[in-house]
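The instructor's notes for this session suggest beginning with a concrete chain rather than abstract definitions. Hand out the sequence below and ask the class to guess, before any prediction is shown, which regions might be ordered.
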Amino acid sequence: AQVLLTVPVLSLIGAGEEPATLDGYGPIPASMARQLVADGAESFHRVLTDPRDGAPLEIGRTSYRVPTAMRQWLRIRDGKCPFPGCNNHSLDNEADHLLAWADGGTTGITNLGQPCHKHHRLKHTSAWKPTPATQNKPPGWVSPSGRHYQSEHQDWEPPDWLSFTGREFQHEQQDWEPPELPDETQIHDAEPPEDPGLTQNLVPGQGGFPERVARHAQHG
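After discussion, reveal the predicted structure:
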């Protein structure tokens, strides 16, 4: 199985604590990421990013082929096939130039999507057209009738970084109080349950009104 873990280089070497991102899950503490890498990472893909916003650098028109590292980045950004309503998370989803290479499209994160095979084919055989992507959002789509569909991507709440340092968790532990248990004397002094052998029946009395009588069950 292939697991995609994105770790800032300073966090990886222990010089920082910026959280890493586990594909399909979300942010994880830097310490956990280092442990995962130490325990089982057999290979690494280096991605050159813009230091201002962390987005991968564009390759432009120097190469049509999408590098492996950029494909991995697409998996993180998109999370699934970007076609409206499609939840295909397959690792086999295909990197696709939104504006075709033959029409002047570049090989860069803002001109790439990762549709599943079905919707990749639909893009090239129908009037469905993708809209431009951004560094952080997958492409949207325009239907043959002209209706615009916003981009869809993994939707997880932004993390509270304090919780990853453990401070917030420790604070919650200090404020935690055990639940109140019932007083033992109340338990021992409680009335015993009704004898299951004593049953009550409603029998018709004179005048048509019911009369309550008790009948003790036979034992033997």
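Then share the key points. The longest helix spans residues 30-40. The chain has seven helices and ten strands.
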